[in-house]
Amino acid sequence: MVALAGIADRSLAAPSPSARVESLLARMTVAEKIGQLTLYPDDVRPTPRPINPDINAQAEARERAAFQRSEIAAGRVGALLGGTGVALGRELQRLALSSRLGIPLMFGADIVHGLRTIFPIPLGLAASFDPSLAESTARAAAEEMTAVGVHWTYAPMIDVARDQRWGRVAEGSGEDPWLTAQFAAAYVRGFQGDDLRSATAVASCPKHFAGYSAAIGGMDYNSTDITPRELRQTYLPPFKAAFDAGALTVMAGFNDIDGVPASGNRELMTDILRGELGFAGFVVSDAGSVEELLPHGFASDPADAAAIGFDAGVDMNMGGGLYKTHLPGHLASGRVSMERLDAAVRAVLMVKERLGLFDDPFRSLDLERERTGIRTPAGLQLAEEAARRSVVLLKNESNVLPLKPGARVALIGPLGDDPAHMDGCWAPWAKVGEAVTLAAALRERLGERLTIAKGSEINAPIEGGIAAAVAAATQADVVVLAIGEGQDMSGEAKSRTEITVPAPQQALAEAIAALGKPVVAVLNCGRALALEGAVRDADAILVAWFLGSRGGPALADILIGTAAPSGRLPVSFPHRSGQQPFYYNHRSTGRPQQPGERPFFKARYLDAPNAALYPFGHGLGYSRIAYDPPVMDAAELRRGGSVTVSAVVRNTGARPVDEVAQLYIQDVTASITRPVRELKDIQRITLAPGEARSVRFAITEADLAFVSADLVRRAEAGLFRVWIAGSSAEGEPASFTLLA
Ligand code: GLC
After folding, report:
1. Which of 17, 174, 485, 695 could hold 489 in an S-S bridge, CB 3.0 to 4.6 Å?
2. Ligand 1 centroid to 384 CA: how many Å?
């Protein structure tokens, strides 16, 4: 596991520039240098379904593909984003090599959870609570994307997301900094692999640096008011973990932090990023994020924005040539120094060199691999395992799951049989129809025992739809209600004020529930939802996120019991939307409402408890689990030493179970108010029916450190409580004292 090393610790030493890079730099003209800092959306091979087609509109007017070809041939483009395809990729690379200095292009793309073999959205994969699984899926995605000529992926997204109204929760690993840091390092290892020069290695690009997810009101692109201490306590640790894992690049965010936009924030983008966190690669802007210093009101015109962003430390401009247009003038006037320019170009050239592009510019541009490296059986098998392990069982009243053998099943709802809503919000290369739906998988397994009725659209009723669904349900023994969000309801620019199941589907659920038959709700969602009425009261609830290419078979096997659910919530499911932002590791306040206390004049709302409906870390299997109270091996922890906490975990049911034992610690009294619990480690164990096993965790001072008021991470002496539990809201604590 990745220890959240002190923010002030330095990261892996940066490799020193090679003689080749220095020699190139010495020969490059200013135009060629700025060219290396220019990243265009690929107009020669545009992304099939760009997430934000307006990105191209932000670029300077140009004859698109013809313009790019001429600029590449002149050695004035460093990288292209969003394009794939080997034949044209080889043509563009040949053009680049034909330029005066022959510096190869880097081809980048947003391949966050798969190119054509689509894995669960990252929020779903986080529910596996297994970073090694993320490393495997990232490795598989790297093999697939390099088969079509991609060298660089704009992933992992590692913004700690505490407000489920924010649509980009879907792309990250949830609300907890420690879990997000584990996944961040795993994704980087998976994408970059063991050998950066390998034809299957891609440069990773953790994003968005930093604090983007703290958008006020959960509204995407909104301002953030993060304190310097909270920035280091909550939002930077995943980036530290990613850099320590060797991430070659990082992406600057759109947001402002306490009034200073990230993409123009020198303290953030240079002092903290390179000084405190030891980042040694290059910084790429987000799409137009330097240009947007204007609408932020932080730059007076595009030239001003270019100077501010570049001087802040944003090396490469993802957009339409802002640096190309304005940096020459700033160099001439002295507003930007040649030293700063050379530092940025050197960082880009070093990444290209580390990827082996100078020695083999056509690496990952292999026509044979393009034919054979897509949607491989091994990749699809991994996608199915990842999907299975991402599903979270929230409740299972009277063991309605697994479905009884021979039962007649009605699959009701708009998301059981819609191939256009399987892949999630960041799957621009997915081909609609390639993912196997739940309906297709259930049809295969249940045959005639399955009836299907849509009942409603995702966001609109169907004339007669509910009546048809009720008729289908009436003939069945049990209803599987496939409902939730469309994949276009989460992701970038997809914030919602009400994080509920859309009303037409809620109406459908109420009508089905009125029949009094067992109902299993299967939720497609890119965020935690505030469940209401018949959805909340369903007999069983499975969270299916967006599971990707093999989501249907994975879900179907869990429903019929040939597989068991093992996922855990990486985000808290609230009672109400109005509780957002809600996260388990909140500070105590001076008026916490303790269990059983009268709820008056306590930190809570009038119309909802200050708790989750389903807490972070929660997830059921098909057996019953019991935790004995934890036991410390010592009552005191000496500086430099360690204590061990253990607990016996029991499978008291009749089926095997995969359990995730979670270690939580509370710093009871400190020089700043501390969270009521913080996840510090996890252990996955498989228990046979009736089996009991002791789970042990070692605790050291590093696990207790926090960012103090003076911005230094340290552990303070005093009392600590410890839980080993199946979620952030369960268990009895043990305690120990850290000595001075
Ligand atoms: C988008 C996103 C970023 C993505 C980039 C390129 O606006 O914010 O995550 O990598 O543009 O598509």
Report:
1. 485
2. 27
CA dist 438 and 33 (Å) reads 52
- The CA-atom distances, in angstroms, between 559 and each of 399, 400, 414, 556 are 11, 10, 18, 5
Look at residue 692 and give its three-state secondary structure.
Answer: strand
Which atom of ligand 1 is closest in space to residue 208's alpha carbon? Answer: 9
Best of 152, 284, 492 to mutate for ligand 1, by most ligand atoms within 8 A of CB?
492
In the prediction, which pLDDT does 50 show? 79
- Mean pLDDT confidence for 50-60: 63
Range list of H helices, 423-550: 438-446, 465-474, 503-513, 533-536
Residue located nearest, by CA, to atom 8 of ligand 1? 286
Q: How far is the CA of 440 from the centre of ligand 1 (A)?
A: 33
β-bridge pairing 612-614 and 636-637 = unpaired
DSSP annotation of 29: -
**One-letter amino acid identity for 599?**
P
pTM: 0.97
User: Best mutation site among 42, 47, 49, 51 for ligand 1, i.e. most ligand atoms within 8 A of its Cβ?
Assistant: 51
- Rounded to the nearest angstrom, the distance between the alpha carbon of 465 and the centre of ligand 1 is 38
Cα 118 to Cα 684: distance, rounded to the nearest angstrom: 25
pLDDT higher than threshold 50 for residue 84: yes
Ranking 11-25, 172-186, 438-452, 476-490 by mean pLDDT, the lowest is 11-25
The angle formed by the CA atoms of residues 25, 26 and 31, to the nearest 5 degrees, is: 65
Q: Is the pLDDT of residue 31 over 50?
A: yes
Q: Are 664 and 725 in contact (CB under 8 A)?
A: yes
| CB of 473 closer than 8 Å to CB of 410 | yes
Both structure tokens of 640: 């430099």
β-pair partners for 714 = 706
Give the pLDDT score at 13: 53
Predicted confidence at residue 55, as pLDDT, reads 61
Specify the pLDDT at position 15.
Answer: 74
List the one residue out of 246, 141, 202 whose CA is nearest residue 356: 202
Alpha-carbon distance of 487 to 426, in angstroms, equals 9
**H-run or E-run covering 93:** helix 86-97
**Residue 15 amino acid letter:** P
**H helices, E strands: number in the chain:** 22, 28
| Cα Dmax for the chain | 80
Cα-to-centroid distance, 528 and ligand 1 (Å) = 22
- CA 287–ligand 1 middle distance (angstroms): 6
In this structure, which residue's CA is closest to atom 7 in ligand 1? 287
Are the C-beta atoms of 731 and 677 separated by less than 8 Å? no
For ligand 1, atom 11: residue with the closest CA: 287
Q: What is the pLDDT of residue 246?
A: 97
| Ligand 1, CB cutoff 6 Å, lining residues | 51-52, 81, 110, 154, 207, 286-287, 492
| Closest-CA residue to 574 (of 529, 543, 536, 537) | 529
Span of 62-76, 368-382, 580-594, 726-740 with lowest mean pLDDT: 62-76
Question: One of 159, 286, 315, 423 is an active-site residue; which one?
Answer: 286
Buried b (16+ CB within 10 A) or exposed e, 2-32: bebbbbeeebeeeeeeeeebeebbeebeeeb
Candidates 42, 110, 112, 429: which one to mutate for ligand 1, based on the most atoms within 8 Å of Cβ?
Answer: 110
pLDDT attached to residue 239: 98
In the predicted structure, residue 6 carries a pLDDT above the cut 50: no
557: annotated active-site residue: no
- CA-closest residue to ligand 1 atom 10: 154
Average per-residue pLDDT in the chain? 95
Tell me what percent of the residues of the chain surpass a pLDDT of 90: 93
Asked if residue 160 has pLDDT above 60, the reply is yes
Q: Cα(first)–Cα(last) distance of the chain, in Å?
A: 27
Question: How far does the centroid of ligand 1 lie from the alpha carbon of residue 212, in Å?
Answer: 12
